[in-house]
Amino acid sequence: MTKKKKNNPESQLHYELGTCSKQNDLKKAISLYESAITQNLKLSSQHFNSILHLCSTPETLISEDNKSLALEYGFRVYDDMLARKIPPTEATITQISRLSAAKNDPDYGFGLIKEMGGLGLVPRLRTYGPTLCCFCDNLRVNDAYEVEKHMISNGVKLEEGEICALLRVSCEVGRSEKVYEYLHKLRGVVRGVSEESAKVVETWFWGEKAVQVGVEEWDLGRAREEKERNGGGWHGLGWFGNGGWVVKRVRVREDGGCCGCQERLVCVDIDCGDTERFGDSVASLALERESKSNFKSFMEWIEKHSDYEAIVDAANIGLYQQNFADGGFSIVQLEAIVRELYNRNKKWPLVVLHNKRLRALQGNPSCRKLFDEWLAQGILYATPSGSNDDWYWLYAAVKLKCLLVTNDEMRDHIFELLGSSFFLQWKERHQVHYTFAKGAPVLKMPPTYSILIQESENGSWHVPVANTSSDELSRTWLCITRPSSCNSVLQSCCNNKGHESHPQTENGTVSLTGKRKERDPSPSRLQ
């Protein structure tokens, strides 16, 4: 601090309050505040917020002695701030919300939050958290739901801690429809639930109220249709079955089989609505950055040629590990990947390659022969000069709901534009990584199952618990079943041999993505 600033009492006070915060010294901060009042210093929102921060920290409120002092001075400081007509900030309201919860008066905190809009302030998750949890702790379930509604109206997304609190209070008061709702909200925000959340889930299914919920008969076909529409991991139709639940802590095998009930977990995709929005978003951004006529032509072409099961990012594969002196585009690597994909299910992928690179490679007679064959077979699309081929292979993969073969992790700025709400889940389900072992391609297909809460058409649930190990086979899962319901559905499955996790094509080969239509050869656009 400069000498001039040290001579400024207000600046010196700000510095000393900062030191108190670092040392968590509430009593010293209060002493400084009282001294500032005596000296009639001109206090700012920074001064008040520093003191309020110290009053509202978990370290302060966990001690009964400090807690009473914090509550007394916290509200006194806040009243003084308002009396001086110093407008509160979001941090101010957040700290008073914490103090109100510590005082077991969530109504006061929620009242302040409701007034923030009129002050031009936007509440954050941290602003709502203490009030929401206090309502939950007091079993004031309708007030807790009202807080959640207010959060949603302000665009604040709940995280696991808040959802767990709402799930717990819903369990405690027996609101089965809300328990179901929050289980699904939990599924949407975490891959593996915390141990705290896992215990709340276990407690619900062990309880008497859980025994009483559920329909005895349901439309199994509709449940399967809803699961498929939702991406594969849940149906969202409510509780199925009757009677008691069996809750076990189990492991899941590498093939997705549950060691507790033998049910096969699935690799969950984004739902149909998100897929449609994702495709529209890619198209919209591409049309802004690419030649509209060129990309629209590609979109129209894809509409007419929609039976590909894999899209190949040719540049990524051809340039893989070619950063050495004599390195260049490896047509051998690209051909090996394309051939490996064909050998798996006797269907050719769509190879997307930039026109500039294609023309350069066609100078080599052997390359020209291969590309001419691919063009004749309708498996090569050359993106036009001046374009970014990333937009083309991404749009094709999303639009056709098929696999994308690339080691590109899609972290570039163009992918950041798409947002990450479901991008990572889409990548997990659709991206195929590759490497080469002694020149032979090795494809790393999407995982056989997703680390997400999964709800079965037979009414059972599987809940992954957070795991610090990198070994997924060591992860603990909650296996939650109703034996009578599972047995009846199992019998139905045995009678319906068409229900397979890997559909087959008419010639008996395994389909990569479950598509059944056959594709006629079609020409690529070479521009």
TrEMBL record:
It is an enzyme of class 3 (hydrolase). The keyword Zinc applies. The keyword Nuclease applies. Residues 3-210 form the PROP1-like PPR domain. Residues 515-527 have a biased composition (Basic and acidic residues). Residues 253-479 form the PRORP domain. Residues 496-527 are annotated as: Disordered. It catalyses: Endonucleolytic cleavage of RNA, removing 5'-extranucleotides from tRNA precursor. Keywords: Hydrolase, Magnesium, Manganese, Metal-binding, Nuclease, Repeat, tRNA processing, Zinc. Its EC number is 3.1.26.5. InterPro entries: PROP1-like_PPR_dom, PRORP_C, TPR-like_helical_dom_sf. Its cofactor is Mg(2+). It comes from the Eukaryota. One of its GO terms (molecular function) is metal ion binding. It holds the Pfam family PRORP. GO terms for biological process: tRNA 5'-leader removal. Belongs to the PPR family. P subfamily. PANTHER family: PROTEINACEOUS RNASE P 2, PTHR13547. This is ribonuclease P.
